[in-house]
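Morning F.,

Quick status update on the modeling queue. The single chain you submitted on Monday has been processed. Sequence for confirmation:
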Amino acid sequence: MVGAQLRDTAQELAAVLWREHTVYRERSGGMVIRGEHVRRWISLAPAGGRDEILVRAGRILDGGTTAPARSEAVVPLSAGTGVLAATCRRLLADAAGDAARPAPDRETAGRSQGPRKTRKPRNSRKSARRNGRGRHTGFGSWVILVCVAGVIALFAYSSAMHG
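C-alpha cells below.
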C-alpha cells in the first residue's frame, strides 16, 4: 500500500514542481523525481513512521550523474501535496544555494573560486618559518642530517677496523 501511495504522491508532486520531469522507482523502493532542465532531483522514501516520508533533494551533475543529497526533511504523507511541494521547494532552494558555488574543474583547481573570507595579510617569510617551511633548513633537519652522517661514519670506521 505504501509503495502505490508513494508512487501516486510522487506523480502529483512532480506535476506541481516541474512541467518537465521524470519519475522512477529507486532500488530501495523510494521514488525519484528528476528535473533535468533545472538540474535537480527529489527523492521520496518511506521514513520510520507509518505515515511519514523522507524527502531528500540534490543536484544533477554534468553527464547526468546525481550529487549526494544536500538536504532532507521528514514530512507526514497525510499533509497533502501543497505542504509536500513547499517542503520540496525549500530543499531545492538549499540545493540551488550549493550549486551557486561551482566545483573547481581541472583547469581552475587551486585557483580562487570567488570571494572568500579575508584575513589580515601576514608576513609570508615569518609565517613560512613559523610553519617550518622556510627557505632555510630548520634545526630539526640539521639534527637528523648530523645523526645520519654519524651513522655512516660509524659504519665506515667499523668496516675499516674489522676488515
